[in-house]
Design goal:
The complex is a heterodimer of chains A (237) and B (342). With 237 residues, chain A is an all-alpha fold. The longest helix of chain A is centred in the last third of the chain and has 34 residues. Chain B is an all-alpha fold and 342 residues long. Chain B is built from 16 helices and no strands. In chain B, α1 packs antiparallel against α11, α4 packs parallel to α6 and α6 crosses α16. In chain B, 48% of the residues are buried. Classes of the chains: A mainly alpha (237), B mainly alpha (342). The interface between A and B is small, with 9 and 9 residues.
Chain lengths: 237, 342
């Protein structure tokens, strides 16, 4: 695994091997805090930063730690990164820190991060490892934000409520009320809604994959068609 | 002269799905008539509007799944879902409430799992629970019965459904709610104090339940389902209610007769517990399935926070039905007990 193509890495992280909807890792924060866009962005950013930091550090020490102690070492690195993020959030986005609550420290136990550290960063050089962390974090974050947006829209009829928690007081009026007089659809905001909407997102992803595959197959058969003559009498189409 | 040699059994045409579904629809009619008499046209409007939405959703789902809508629409299963949910919803519910409920029932609870025959949960009850969790205010507003309040006419019922903001209806706690909230009055005092109570249970409720019982007995006579699950459910409900009745004190859970004739007991026992797709299949399994639902209904009614318990009890036991079936599979005649078990 000497050289890796960055194109392949991006495709993997964002679509083909997306941590949230293909590997189904890190479902606990995915389901628990995606009640609104702002929560999703907050947690997505935090996870991405932790992923990049941990992948970087793991890649740097990959030739130093022995196989026997590699997992504890990786977990220590991840825990340190998470603690930094937690302190930063306390300092700069305290309200959001309070809303995300236990799910910030729980990033430590997010399988995506340990999975990438052990599965990718410990076998690759610094630059690809950092890039992989970034892309995997983005893939995870995009699904978080999509899910948060869907649930916020279905649940409250509005989008981008209380963005000032993350982006400062200027963002307080970013809230877009798409459906006025909306009766709050509580199911979408409650945990069962997270399961249902995650399932729907996965279904749509599989549907798109299916369509793409069919189109590719159709193109393949078209090129083959008529190349071989089996019958010599009658009309050949 | 042609001699037709026919040997026994002389079977009639089989009970195919459309026929069974039509019988179920027919059997709900007495209950609907009684509900309409006591609570006004709200239920009828719910059912009609619900049926329209159900047929649309069914067609849409079948199109998306690449099936021919004509064949599957004719089995009337979507209409049965619409009827059961329309009856269960409070009368004079706004149009969007009915639409969301029916859409969740047909699209989420039925077609996402593979359509009729593959759904693990009863669609009508799943739709009801989704609504109850999402819109508790609208779902717990039940209209007052005839004799305890004004009954809106058909026009007002339509108005309540399609322009809910302009409709100014009155609502009243159901007898089950009153009983649950009561913690200081003897049952006799409670009965005397609230106009909603009738002879045995609530005004309207008792007759509606008896009407659903009649419809259910007709279905039983038509052999649409067997007696095991409904009887087990009613028996276990009565048993628990009898044990905790305590003669009508302030902590009483209500008499067995009250529980049998309140809320959705009879509708549940004969129209929902007997759903062939989502219930247990074996005879012993049906007895266990029904009895557990009856017990859960009593527990949730008396100890829970929600107005009626049939929907929750049925969904919980739908989960358990495959498990029950696994352990109650009858032994084939002439075979020993299969190895590895017991």
């Amino acid at each position: 695994m000497a050289d890796v193509s960055y194109r392949e890495l991006s495709l993997n992280g964002l679509w083909k091997n997306n941590p949230a909807i293909v590997q189904l890792l890190g479902l606990c924060p995915l389901l628990a805090v995606t009640g609104s866009v702002v929560n999703a962005i907050g947690l997505g950013l935090a996870t991405t930063v932790v992923l990049v930091c941990s992948n970087t550090a793991v890649s740097l020490i990959r030739n130093v730690v022995s196989d026997a102690v590699r997992l504890p070492a990786f977990v220590m690195i991840i825990a340190a990164a998470v603690t930094c993020i937690e302190l930063l959030m306390q300092a700069y986005a305290y309200e959001l820190y309070q809303i995300l609550g236990i799910f910030l420290p729980l990033i430590t136990t997010n399988c995506v991060i340990l999975g990438r550290a052990d599965g990718f960063a410990s076998k690759h050089a610094l630059a690809p490892a950092m890039y992989d962390g970034l892309i995997m974090g983005l893939g995870f974050g995009i699904v978080l934000v999509l899910l948060g947006g869907l649930r916020e829209l279905a649940g409250t009829g509005a989008l981008f409520a209380s963005m000032d928690l993350l982006f400062g007081a200027g963002a307080a009026h970013w809230k877009v009320v798409l459906i006025p007089d909306y009766q709050n659809f509580l199911l979408a905001i409650l945990p069962p809604g997270a399961f249902i909407f995650t399932g729907l997102i996965i279904a749509v992803k599989n549907l798109i994959d299916d369509r793409l595959k069919k189109r590719r197959d159709a193109q393949k058969t078209q090129t083959v068609k008529g190349a071989k003559r089996v019958r010599v009498t009658g009309t050949i189409s | 002269m042609g001699l037709l040699r026919i040997t026994s059994p002389h079977a009639h045409g089989p009970q195919h799905t459309p026929r069974v579904m039509q019988k179920v629809l027919l059997a709900t009619l007495p209950g609907i008539v009684v509900l309409t008499h006591f609570f006004g046209f709200g239920t009828v409007v719910n059912i009609l509007w619900g049926s329209v939405v159900a047929l649309l959703c069914e067609t849409l789902a079948l199109r998306l799944r690449g099936r021919s809508p004509g064949f599957y629409l004719r089995d009337c299963s979507a209409l049965v879902t619409a009827f059961l949910l329309g009856i269960a919803l409070p009368p004079y519910a706004p149009w969007w409430l009915v639409a969301v409920g029916i859409a969740s029932a047909i699209l989420l609870a039925k077609h996402l799992y593979g359509g009729l025959g593959y759904n693990p949960f009863n669609p009508a009850m799943a739709g009801y629970v989704i609504l109850l969790i999402s819109f508790p205010v609208q779902m717990t507003a039940w209209a007052p019965p005839r004799g305890a309040g004004d009954i809106p006419g058909l026009l007002q019922a339509l108005q309540a459904c399609f322009t809910p903001d302009a409709f100014d209806g009155s609502t009243m706690a159901t007898p089950l709610d009153l009983l649950k909230q009561n913690d200081s009055l003897l049952l006799q005092e409670l009965w005397a104090q609230s106009p909603q109570f009738g002879r045995w249970a609530g005004i309207g409720w008792e007759w509606a339940n008896l009407a659903f019982l009649a419809g259910g007995l007709w279905l039983l006579q038509q052999r649409v389902f067997s007696w095991h699950a409904p009887l087990a459910m009613l028996a276990s409900l009565s048993l628990l209610a009898g044990i905790f009745y305590d003669g009508g004190g302030s902590a009483s859970g209500g008499s067995p007769l009250f529980h049998l004739l309140s809320g959705a007991t009879m509708l549940g026992a004969f129209f929902i517990v007997t759903d062939p797709v989502t219930s247990a299949v074996s005879v012993r399994g049906r007895l266990i399935y029904g009895a557990m639902i009856g017990a859960l209904v009593y527990i949730i009614r008396v100890r829970g926070n929600y107005p009626d318990a049939v929907a929750f009890a049925v969904l919980i036991m739908n989960f358990a039905a495959p498990f029950i079936d696994h352990y109650t599979q009858p032994r084939t005649y002439g075979h020993q007990r299969s190895e590895g078990r017991e």
